[in-house]
Amino acid sequence: MKTLLYCILTLVLFSCSSEKQATDLIVKNANIYTVNATFDKASAFVVNEGKIIEIGDSKILEAKYSSTNTFDAQGKTIVPGLIDAHAHLYNLGLFLQNVDLKGTNSFEEVLERVVAFQEERNLDYIEGRGWDQNDWEVKEFPTKKRLDELFPDTPVALKRIDGHAYLANSKALELAGINAETNTEGGEIILNNGEPTGIIIDSPMDLINASIPKTSKKHKIQALKAAEKVCLKLGLTTVDDAGLDREIIELIDSLQQTGELTIRVYAMVSNTEENLDYYLNNGIIKTDRLHVRSIKVYADGALGSRGATLRKEYSDKEGHIGAMITPRNKLSALAKRIAKAGYQMNTHAIGDSANISVLRAYKPLINDGKDLRWRIEHAQIVSLEDFDKYSKNIIPSVQPTHATSDMYWAEDRVGAERIKGAYAYKSLLKSAGMIALGTDFPIEKVNPMHTFYSAIARKDLKNYPEEGYRMEEALNREETLKGMTIWAAYSNFEEYEKGSIEIGKFADFTVLEKDIMIIPEEEIPNLKVNATFINGDKVYEIGANLN
């Protein structure tokens, strides 16, 4: 009798086992935030051919599916693959290979880093990025005098942290053909006693860029791979690169096609005539990893270098209102051309004058009822009466760490009244119904946990200010996670393939060591990513070498 029961039980178990559906990956024992329409939670999901095929309870799904590849999350939190809605992947790679000037507390420290870098590398042209005079005791632009003394025969070009100003020595200015008579439309060449000081702001920077020795293809590939490694470690699965030329876009595509580059890229095409002629005439480009359907336009410069365009003069510089990089009439003409080609227009706008100029350029085209989803990148200083002009067709794409980086000096630039419309993320969200969140790295650090923390706590990494910076503009945790996932995906026309853990979507997800939705906010900046998956493939795991 016992033998008969054993045989029946074995037959039943074998039958159940044989009925299990084979699949590529089972994720179980997880604390999953799906970020679907009702913000549901789950403990498991199943992946096949790179996409999610079922979501639910661990025991139920394990009974239904079989796989040789199981990821036991052991109670860890899983969120949809994090998206950085505004960053510079390629520039991060270049930044990693140049002098790192971020966090310098004085111009002397800048010089020390440049000297140490050159002693190690011995380059024919020295490039660096990351200095910010607002972090120094003397909050004034430096001059080229000391660089000339240290490097009389070697060109040096050091980019400000926001990417909107260079400090260049005389040799670099000479190579670029820059002097006191150089055209400064769309920017500024700062002079002293009729001679360039070495500070070049916005449009004239192109002359420096054109004179820097060309980067080899090998160097470009190394840069992209180095940047990707940083991003995957920090849980990013998609990066919106805000300004790329055709050459780099095609290089990214080729590396993705051969499997040498894993991360997904939403590429904003740099606004040059050559790029526009090619992409607007050839239409949208879409693969599983690359999406090219937007043009990155600069309306104005940055607030830190006083290149942002304001409606009234700067509070700390009499008579100065900044300069439009793209004049208002050209913004409107460009908008019509982009709309006709079916592309998205993503425009950098910092100052209140630049923001209203972009809103006015967008408005006639938005009103025709098309699903354009045009974006305003940064939307940093907005006049209070202009917030209601944002919508799901004019999406604010902002970077929360800008608020906590700039809060020390931003009000000095714009005054107590205009600051009410600055870094106003909650107000923008209320108007638009969504908000896309990013970092603008390498201007800010890559870490998306810093984005999350800045958005909800409105504090810097030193816990300042203790009560938070203008907390009426803070986002809550659910809004922040959506801004880094499903809303960012929507802003990329990709909400049906990513941004949430739902059936039919790519199996892109990020595994966190703790529950980001409930842990004390002070723990968020140091929250570690345990693993990153793209297309169901583990592309990063803490402590593992997956290369």
Give a brief rundown of this model.
With 547 residues, this protein is α/β, with parallel strands linked by helices.
Structure in words:
- With 547 residues, the chain is α/β, with parallel strands linked by helices.
- It contains 18 helices and 27 strands.
- Helix 4 links the parallel strand 11 and strand 12 (126-131).
- Helix 3 crosses helix 8 (217-233), helix 11 (328-340) packs parallel to helix 12 (352-366) and helix 13 crosses helix 16 (448-457).
- The longest helix has 18 residues, at 2-19.
- The protein is globular.
- The N and C termini lie far apart (56 Å).
Instruction: Kindly report how far apart the N and C termini lie.
Output: 56 Å
* Assembly state: single chain
Gyration radius, rounded: 25 Å
Mean pLDDT metric: 94
Low-pLDDT windows of residues:
1-17
The proportion of strand residues reads: 15-25%
CATH top level assignment of the largest domain: Alpha Beta
Number of helices: 18
CATH architecture assignment of the largest domain? Alpha-Beta Barrel
Instruction: Classify the helix fraction into a percent range.
Output: 25-40%
CATH topology of the largest domain: TIM Barrel
Major sheet details = 9 strands, mixed
The tally of structural domains comes to: 3
CATH superfamily of the largest domain: Metal-dependent hydrolases
Write the SSE topology.
Blueprint: H1 2-19, E1 21-22, E2 25-28, E3 31-33, E4 41-42, E5 44-48, E6 51-56, H2 58-64, E7 65-66, E8 70-72, E9 77-80, E10 82-87, H3 89-95, E11 99-100, H4 107-121, E12 126-131, H5 145-150, E13 156-160, E14 165-168, H6 170-176, E15 187-192, E16 195-202, H7 205-211, H8 217-233, E17 236-244, H9 246-257, E18 264-270, H10 273-282, E19 285-286, E20 290-298, H11 328-340, E21 344-349, H12 352-366, E22 374-378, E23 394-398, H13 400-406, H14 410-418, H15 425-432, E24 436-437, H16 448-457, H17 477-483, H18 486-491, E25 509-512, E26 529-534, E27 537-541
Parallel strand pairs: 1-7, 2-8, 3-9, 10-17, 11-12, 12-13, 17-18, 18-20, 20-21, 21-22, 22-23, 23-24
Antiparallel strand pairs: 2-5, 3-4, 5-6, 9-25, 13-14, 14-16, 15-16, 19-20, 25-26, 26-27
